[in-house]
Amino acid sequence: MQMKEYKYILLDLDGTITDPMIGITRCVEYALNHFGIQVNDLRELCPFIGPPLLDSFRDFYHFTYEQAKEATEKYRERFADTGIYENKLYDGMKDFLEEATRQGRILMLALPLIFIVIYQFVDLGMSPAYLLMLGVMMNLCLTPLSVLGMMIAEEKEKNTMRTLMLCNVTGGEFLAAKTLAVLAGTLLVDTMLFFLTGFGPAQLPVFLLVCTAGSMTMLLLGGLTGIVCRDQTSTGTIAGPLALVFMLPTMFAGMGGVLQKVASFVPTTATADLMFLGLGHQSWMGANVLWDVAVLAVWTAGSAGLFALAFRKKGVDN
Q1: Which of 31, 51, 157, 305 is deepest in the core (most CB within 10 A)?
Q2: Is this structure's pTM higher than 0.90?
Q3: In this predicted model, which residue has the larger pLDDT, 115 or 251?
Q4: Among 254, 172, 256, 253, which Cα is nearest to 216's?
Q5: Which residues of 186-214 are buried (b: 16+ CB within 10 A; e: fewer)?
Q6: 142 or 75, which is more confident
Q7: DSSP per-residue letters across 212-244
Q8: Measured at the alpha carbon of residue 252, what is the angle toward residues 237 and 203, in degrees to the nearest 5?
């Protein structure tokens, strides 16, 4: 397959890379069951994907406004706990991503960019450095953890992992083949976020160095998630909460107290701290450079060790 001569490919996650059908329709079914309505085939609920929920419940099941509002609340009740993690890669998506990588395309997720563009038009009093940090944290947690984990999980579903092991492919070689394109796409999105928030090229090299260091832990954890999980659905179930575990403490560390102490041991916080220093701002967490570097080093080394162990065990077992 030969693609048109596009160097950069910007992709949305839900509905483009991953299929949200199961998660959304099961949540709609859950809401309908609350009203005593049984659904025999989830495909009947596919029209709910896309339009506003309030309108869909009223149009398709003739709910009153109050009923539609209650149904929407029941939908969100399940979606927040379970539905959000029930995505899986579309058929052929892994092949597309690998072919795009083979042809030298650079792949990027659109969500962090959309986030920054929206905030450019909403004055919430955020400094450019803080806004950039939010976008970078979102990108670091979503892309390596979710996309890489799903790609590796699909290899397991197709039973190619054991074949690779029998060909004496090491864990490092396997991970490198999967992560180079993901890392390139992650850094390209970070670069676009950097310029969108108004920073100049002089600070870019240090910024990218910090982002690369922070990406390594997330890439290793994404690979580990894909290895240990049974399939793409279970990978999504783990990757979603894991992304929040790394993202939220960093974003809300400024509130102080226990949250700040916990955040000081999280690799994304160390990345944000070094990023602030590299941009010429005060340290985000008040930590010193040696502490931040040590946190990243420990997480990276630990994640690499766990991935190597999991590859040797799970790669053969599956």
Answers
A1: 31
A2: no
A3: 251
A4: 172
A5: bbbbbebbbebbebeeeeeeebbebbebb
A6: 75
A7: HHHHHHHHHHHHHHHHHSSSHHHHHHHHHHHHH
A8: 100
